[in-house]
Recover the amino acids of this structure.
């Protein structure tokens, strides 16, 4: 954490393309915080007008806010057009990214003699690194991580506690994996034989591109043969489950509890919202977005917005769901029509049925 | 485990407000068990009449049962109005709660010199406690737990194996977290920039109130700024996923595989059944209950019962779902109406369309 | 990995009941791989005709393929009727199953003196085995595993890193559990008391049969009383969540993110696809299959195929879903009928309503 004067913060924002104006005293701030939680000496922000009432109560000393919005005079205001985007810049400037404990190459880590470890290692006690592993420079491995034989990690990777990387899996550079996630476990690869399941050795691997970040307690199957892939720059929330042989493109975002079955191809910059499921062997195009709890059961073209289980075009799905919620009313109206038509038939002497 | 005579158990039940009558020999029992699994010297129970037939086969020596229900004469019966509630009292009395292995302050734990550990610690080998951590009295930490720098645990907490608490997170008193759960990992906090995701440092924390119990392999994001909260007395099942900045009230119960997105406010005594999802930035009132697999996509008032994806009033949802399952029939009836109306139009010489 | 000549592989396939013919040079192959990833000296396969175009590009030296399918002359072909099934045999023959690091009985493992460990143990540093545990012969426990007091493991079990087995749980022979899974944690067992949740000690256990394989980050609750069971030969994908007291039969397959609530009985050879949920206290018959994201809310007879949330007969569900997606059209048609009937009523002088 670094204290910043508001005038300094103005310059940092300008460097990032956010024109900002200081309105009030040029104070030093030592943290960014919410309206509710900020203390004296901290800077807060107002983006969503629904929280405007909380500005009067905040104990913050400064606020990022749009031009023209009223602010109590005891607060210094940094005014800019998009306070929500600017707050990210302020957080990086004041707080920076997490600093890890420094273990060097801990003698309490179990590192196989055949493993090759890059420069400036930060490997905690209780880490196990198996035979023939290659680890790049500047990697941090927290306690309880296990990197199995033949796995490769690039430079600047961070594995939080209890991450497991199975044998021969590959992580690119700047990959971050949160606690408890597993990369490269065997998928559900069994051949049926007389009502039993015979295990097929899973001899492929899982490969994660550069700048991938994986949430906590995710699981990414290795491929039966070849590779399961997570593309460069893709981010997963928590408990995302990826099946064997699935290839996820670059710059995707998968939210919590998403499950993608095996042998799926996902394009680039695809968003899957919470609890979405994707059936096996499908192809999903680029720039697709899928609403929460949807179930993808067929191929999806580029740029599609999907919703529902099974998912269809999101606009159609919302119309169908609205109609469904009004179904009991429509059922009554159909019954009434049947009554009236019967009445008309009688009147006209038309025989029923 | 403590052996209890049935007459003693009667008194214990009475102390808890359950009037019970001993019908048969005053035997000692050493365990509570199911009808199917009980052995001689154990006490079983019958609550659901659908299991009545199993009473004849049980090997138990005693049974908790309603007055008036027939029981083989070889069984002593403890008769009370609510055997299902009474069995909980019997379990506590005879079995008590889990007794943990006793490690004291294990020399095999990695405890940073700046950490402050309370009285009577029970910290296993293979635990890591980082800098500036504060841990209250009587805390049990199983092997593989990691408590990151600046985290605070209250008194009488239990962390089962491989629980991870990220930096600066806070646990109240008597918090129990089952194996593999993670508290305070980074949420999906990224700013979009030219089709890439730029990470925003997540500088808030996660705060769990007193008497919270968290199941296995759950994940509770830290807030981007401020606090993610889990209220006093709230209980989570397994693999519950809570997004950044979400505030869950007191005495809630969330069942397995529930996912709540970020910035949600949940009231007190809310029940979310299995696989429920809640979209971001919503407000859910007090005493709400939501049926399994439902998806909450809008604010929910106090006392609402919700169901469906997207969730609506549970009664309406059930009617709509029933109607939906009969849709193919309604489609046939509409087609038949169209045919009949066309027939009538022709009869009357009305032009079509 | 063992290199195999194609003529040898022919014989191995024949031994498994797959008649195969060598068409081309009798080369040695050292690995099985996908069309896309195979290198020289490797054998690939073509089963799904949609990948036929990739055969021209593969760098493999041999291919498993149906009789009559065209293949470039540089590739040796092993022709057989079912290349997809045959490839499993080829993988076992050439690659075999995963070979684990060999730790023996590591002095870095924490093994309680009262534990009984079978012959040829392979117990890594960082494993904890508590009091009165019994472990069979030939068991492999990776680092970070915790086996609590009184648990029993059969022969030939494999626990990948960070698996936790709670006290008194039982694993059969040849049980494999992937990284981060938890067996026997407490379920959601609470009694309501004045708006609070009072914990009921969970004194039952979880029992896994022979040849069970559990994916990564699964959770299997112990029973409140008696046993939670997973039947012989049953396989779970990743993040499968099983509630307390549930009994799953033999040879089932549960795919990723499946959740089964407590006190459910599941028959044998039941398939639950991804993200399926099952409500508590239900009985599911034998040979049942349930489609992805379905929610089982009632008992299910043998051999049923179910789909939807709540799930109904899969055929009916698909018809209902199709009808639902066309609902907006049906709504328009009902409105049109109402208009026409009103017109007819006017024509006939019938009073409205």
């Amino acid at each position: 954490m670094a204290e910043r004067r508001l005038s300094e913060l103005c310059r940092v924002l300008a460097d990032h393309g956010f024109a900002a104006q200081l309105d009030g005293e040029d104070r030093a701030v030592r943290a960014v915080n919410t309206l509710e939680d900020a203390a004296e000496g901290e800077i807060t922000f107002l983006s969503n007008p629904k929280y405007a009432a909380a500005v009067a109560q905040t104990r913050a000393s400064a606020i990022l806010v749009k031009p023209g919005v009223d602010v109590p005079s005891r607060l210094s205001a940094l005014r800019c057009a998009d306070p929500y985007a600017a707050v990210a810049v302020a957080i990086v400037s004041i707080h920076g990214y997490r600093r890890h404990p420094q273990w060097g190459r801990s003698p309490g880590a179990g590192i196989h003699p055949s493993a090759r470890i890059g420069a400036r290692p930060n490997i905690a006690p209780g880490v196990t690194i198996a035979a023939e592993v290659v680890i790049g420079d500047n990697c941090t491995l927290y306690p309880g991580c296990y990197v199995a034989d033949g796995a490769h990690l690039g430079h600047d990777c961070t594995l939080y506690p209890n991450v497991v990387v199975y044998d021969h899996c590959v992580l690119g550079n700047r990959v971050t994996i949160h606690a408890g996630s597993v990369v490269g476990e065997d998928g559900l690869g069994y051949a049926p034989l007389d009502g039993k399941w015979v295990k097929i050795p899973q001899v492929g691997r899982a490969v994660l591109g550069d700048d991938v970040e994986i949430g906590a307690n995710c699981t990414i199957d290795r491929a039966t043969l070849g590779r399961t892939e997570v593309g460069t720059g893709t981010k997963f929330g928590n408990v995302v489950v990826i099946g064997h042989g699935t290839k996820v493109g670059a710059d995707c975002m998968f939210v919590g509890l998403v499950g993608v079955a095996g042998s799926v191809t996902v394009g680039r910059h695809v968003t899957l919202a919470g609890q979405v499921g994707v059936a096996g062997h499908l192809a999903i195009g680029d720039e697709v977005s899928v609403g929460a709890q949807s179930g993808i059961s067929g191929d999806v073209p580029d740029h599609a917005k999907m919703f529902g289980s099974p998912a269809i075009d999101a606009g159609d799905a919302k119309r169908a769901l609205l109609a469904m919620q009004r179904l009991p009313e429509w059922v009554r109206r159909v019954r009434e029509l049947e009554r009236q038509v019967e009445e008309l038939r009688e009147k006209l002497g038309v025989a029923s049925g």
In short: Chain A has three domains: 4-94, 163-310, 323-353. Chain A has a mean pLDDT of 95. The CA atoms of residues 206 and 228 of chain A lie 5 Å apart.
